[in-house]
Amino acid sequence: MAFWGEDYIRALEVRDKREQTNRRIIEACKIQFPERQSRAKLIDVVSQLQGLQNPVGLAGNDPSVNGPNVVLVSSLRTDLASAQRSRKSLEDQVDRLRTEVAEMRVRSQSSQKTTTELQQQKYSLSMRLRDRDEELRGKAKLLDDVHDENLSLTLQLNMAEGRSRNLTAENKELIDRWMEKMKQEAESMNQKSEFS
Fold first, then answer.
1. How many Cβ atoms sit within 10 Å of the Cβ of residue 59?
2. Burial degree of 126 (CB within 10 A; 0-12, 13-18, 19+)
3. Distance of CA 38 to the CA centre of its chain
4. How far apart are CA 41 and CA 83, in angstroms?
5. Are 83 and 38 spatial neighbours (Cβ–Cβ below 8 Å)?
6. What is the mean pLDDT of residues 160-169?
7. What does each C-alpha distance from 141 to 79, 129, 190 come to in angstroms?
8. What is the pLDDT of residues 46-87, one digit of tens each?
9. How far apart are CA 97 and CA 30, in angstroms?
10. What is the percent of the chain where pLDDT is above 90?
11. Is 163 exposed, middle or buried (0-12, 13-18, 19+ CB in 10 A)?
12. CA dist., res. 83 & res. 34, Å (int)
């Protein structure tokens, strides 16, 4: 029969494995989502650029085309810089979370070890308690037996004392009767000896 704590620990391990597989997907989405957003902005900007009559590289000397391109390039650079900053921030968060996960795993293992030790102590103490209960029941039964034996011996002693008193009284009566008889016989012999 499996100990309930072992089932609980196994269930926790299964849950941790399931969460770890999902965590990789979540972290990948966290990293890829800002990159996808910046790519989408880049595609929008490129499509806007292609919508212009002259491509960016060929606009060279025309100041009317050069102005919007500079703004777009500057906007792209700003968006790219903010995307890289957010990516760096997210990477820092991922690193910090990985460190926390590692610490939590260590704590979880420590907790599992402590739980196992406490369960073993509980089992040991319950066994000692059961043994002590059995010992106390045995001592209580022995005490009851001694008490019953004491009552029985007291009753026998009282009966023996009563019998002894009866026999002493009967013996005294017999001695008194015998002494009376001897006295009468002695008197009778004295009287016979006087007449003779």
1. 19
2. exposed
3. 51
4. 11
5. yes
6. 95
7. 89, 18, 72
8. 666 655 434 444 444 444 445 567 777 788 788 888 888 888
9. 13
10. 46
11. exposed
12. 7
Cα of 102 vs its chain's centroid, Å: 24
* Span 10-43, pLDDT tens digits: 888 888 777 776 676 666 666 666 666 666 676 7
The three-state secondary structure class of 59 is coil
Instruction: Tell which residue, 118, 97, 100, 96, has the closest CA to residue 108.
Output: 100
The Cα 164–Cα 103 span in angstroms is 89
CA distance 49 to 68: 9
Residue type (1 letter), 57? G
Reduced to 3 DSSP states, what percent helix, strand and coil does the chain have, rounded to the nearest 5? 95, 0, 5
The encoded tokens of residue 137 equal 């029941």
Polymer length in residues for the chain: 196
CA dihedral 93, 94, 98, 101 (to 10 degrees): 70
Query: Which residue has tokens 């043994």?
Result: 131
